[in-house]
Amino acid sequence: MPYKPLTILMADDDWEDMELMEDALADVEPTAVLHKVESGTAAINYLKAQPDAELPCLIILDYNMPELKGSDVLALIRKDHRYKNIPKVILSTSNTKAYIDECMHNGATEYFVKPHSFEDLSKIAKRMLDFCDNTAN
Whole-angstrom Cα distance, residue 111 to residue 62? Predict the structure, then answer.
């Protein structure tokens, strides 16, 4: 079977944060492919458009986004069995306990607070990719 790179979906309304995460993921797994969208609505539209064989191995969501925040996306995709086995993580600037509890209740695998250093972001990227590896076929 040919090698298939890890495919990850990230939704964040801050393009710079997505670029940093892309660099951190590439630091850990250079062949990983990050699909970037700027809203929760765009994340849902992306997922709906993918055939089952092309779904990402990981979904990364920002908590605070226009239209649909990360926890709203979690609640919506939780209803569709296609996404049941895909790990979903929140990467947010907020460490508010109520937000964390809300996201975990809505199906998040993990909630990460955006770090202040690239080194720490790479450590988070490694942990996220471990979720991907655990669900790979």
Answer: 10
Residue-wise pLDDT tens digits, 42-68? 999 999 999 998 999 999 999 999 889
| DSSP bridge pairs for 9 | 35, 59
What is the distance between the alpha carbons of residues 35 and 2, in angstroms, rounded to a whole number? Answer: 21
d(CA 36, CA 46): 10
Would the pTM count as exceeding 0.85? Answer: yes
Determine contact, residues 59/50, Cβ cutoff 8 Å.
Answer: no
Domain chopping of the chain, boundaries: 18-58+68-92+107-116
Distances (CA, A) of 8 to 36, 39, 65, 67, 116: 9, 15, 18, 21, 22
